[in-house]
Amino acid sequence: MSTIDERRRAPRFIASLTLTVLLSEGEAHYVAETENMSDTGLCLRSERVFPVGTQLRLVFGRPPELPALIAEGIVRWSEGGKGVGVEFTSMSPDDQQALLRFVSSPSRWKQA
User: Fold this and answer.
1) Model pTM score
2) Given pLDDT bands bounded at 50, 70 and 90, which one contains residue 107?
3) Which CATH class is domain 4-106?
4) CA 112, CA 102: separation in Å to the nearest integer?
5) Other Cβ atoms within 10 Å of 80 Cβ, number
6) Helix, strand, or coil here: 6?
Protein backbone atom coordinates (compact mmCIF):
# COMPACT_ATOMS: atom_id res chain seq x y z
CA MET A 1 0.00 0.00 0.00
CA SER A 2 1.35 3.43 -0.88
CA THR A 3 1.84 6.18 1.66
CA ILE A 4 -0.01 9.48 1.50
CA ASP A 5 3.13 11.23 0.19
CA GLU A 6 3.48 8.70 -2.65
CA ARG A 7 -0.13 9.25 -3.74
CA ARG A 8 0.20 13.02 -4.08
CA ARG A 9 0.03 14.34 -7.62
CA ALA A 10 0.61 18.03 -6.85
CA PRO A 11 2.97 19.72 -4.39
CA ARG A 12 1.36 20.44 -1.04
CA PHE A 13 1.98 23.62 0.92
CA ILE A 14 1.68 24.05 4.67
CA ALA A 15 -0.15 27.21 5.57
CA SER A 16 1.59 29.91 7.55
CA LEU A 17 -1.99 30.92 8.30
CA THR A 18 -4.87 28.62 9.08
CA LEU A 19 -7.77 28.48 6.66
CA THR A 20 -11.12 27.46 8.05
CA VAL A 21 -13.21 25.31 5.73
CA LEU A 22 -16.97 24.96 6.00
CA LEU A 23 -18.01 21.50 4.83
CA SER A 24 -21.41 20.28 3.77
CA GLU A 25 -22.30 16.63 3.39
CA GLY A 26 -25.93 16.58 2.35
CA GLU A 27 -27.79 18.59 5.00
CA ALA A 28 -25.02 18.28 7.62
CA HIS A 29 -22.47 21.08 8.08
CA TYR A 30 -19.01 20.93 9.68
CA VAL A 31 -16.04 23.23 10.27
CA ALA A 32 -12.46 22.07 9.75
CA GLU A 33 -9.02 23.63 9.37
CA THR A 34 -6.54 23.02 6.60
CA GLU A 35 -3.35 21.08 7.23
CA ASN A 36 -2.01 21.65 3.73
CA MET A 37 -3.35 22.33 0.27
CA SER A 38 -2.55 22.47 -3.41
CA ASP A 39 -4.42 23.55 -6.50
CA THR A 40 -5.91 20.03 -6.76
CA GLY A 41 -6.99 19.37 -3.17
CA LEU A 42 -6.36 19.78 0.51
CA CYS A 43 -5.86 17.96 3.77
CA LEU A 44 -8.27 18.81 6.55
CA ARG A 45 -7.87 18.48 10.30
CA SER A 46 -11.34 17.42 11.27
CA GLU A 47 -12.86 15.84 14.35
CA ARG A 48 -15.17 13.98 12.00
CA VAL A 49 -13.59 11.24 9.91
CA PHE A 50 -15.30 11.14 6.53
CA PRO A 51 -15.29 7.80 4.69
CA VAL A 52 -13.37 7.55 1.42
CA GLY A 53 -15.68 8.45 -1.44
CA THR A 54 -17.72 10.98 0.53
CA GLN A 55 -18.80 13.92 -1.63
CA LEU A 56 -18.29 17.28 0.09
CA ARG A 57 -19.10 20.90 -0.68
CA LEU A 58 -16.36 23.20 0.64
CA VAL A 59 -16.45 26.93 1.28
CA PHE A 60 -13.13 28.42 2.30
CA GLY A 61 -10.97 31.50 2.10
CA ARG A 62 -9.39 34.20 4.18
CA PRO A 63 -9.84 37.72 2.90
CA PRO A 64 -7.93 39.60 1.66
CA GLU A 65 -5.35 36.89 0.86
CA LEU A 66 -7.90 34.45 -0.49
CA PRO A 67 -11.48 35.40 -1.29
CA ALA A 68 -14.26 33.02 -0.32
CA LEU A 69 -14.13 30.05 -2.70
CA ILE A 70 -16.66 27.31 -3.28
CA ALA A 71 -15.62 23.85 -4.44
CA GLU A 72 -16.98 20.34 -4.67
CA GLY A 73 -14.65 17.55 -3.62
CA ILE A 74 -14.36 13.87 -2.88
CA VAL A 75 -12.61 12.25 0.07
CA ARG A 76 -9.65 10.26 -1.30
CA TRP A 77 -8.16 9.18 2.04
CA SER A 78 -9.16 9.41 5.67
CA GLU A 79 -7.12 8.50 8.72
CA GLY A 80 -8.26 9.11 12.28
CA GLY A 81 -5.90 11.52 14.02
CA LYS A 82 -4.13 12.42 10.75
CA GLY A 83 -6.78 14.08 8.66
CA VAL A 84 -8.92 13.81 5.60
CA GLY A 85 -7.60 14.23 2.05
CA VAL A 86 -10.02 15.88 -0.35
CA GLU A 87 -9.57 16.12 -4.11
CA PHE A 88 -11.34 19.03 -5.77
CA THR A 89 -13.79 17.79 -8.39
CA SER A 90 -15.55 21.02 -9.34
CA MET A 91 -14.72 24.70 -8.97
CA SER A 92 -15.54 27.76 -11.04
CA PRO A 93 -12.74 29.02 -13.34
CA ASP A 94 -12.50 32.27 -11.33
CA ASP A 95 -12.18 30.36 -8.06
CA GLN A 96 -9.55 28.06 -9.61
CA GLN A 97 -7.49 31.08 -10.69
CA ALA A 98 -7.77 32.69 -7.23
CA LEU A 99 -6.69 29.43 -5.58
CA LEU A 100 -3.77 29.00 -7.98
CA ARG A 101 -2.56 32.55 -7.27
CA PHE A 102 -2.86 31.88 -3.53
CA VAL A 103 -0.95 28.59 -3.46
CA SER A 104 1.67 30.07 -5.82
CA SER A 105 2.48 32.88 -3.37
CA PRO A 106 5.68 31.82 -1.57
CA SER A 107 5.22 34.35 1.25
CA ARG A 108 2.23 32.45 2.68
CA TRP A 109 3.37 28.86 2.42
CA LYS A 110 6.22 26.49 3.00
CA GLN A 111 6.37 23.34 0.91
CA ALA A 112 5.27 20.19 2.73
Assistant:
1) 0.77
2) low
3) mainly beta
4) 16
5) 8
6) helix
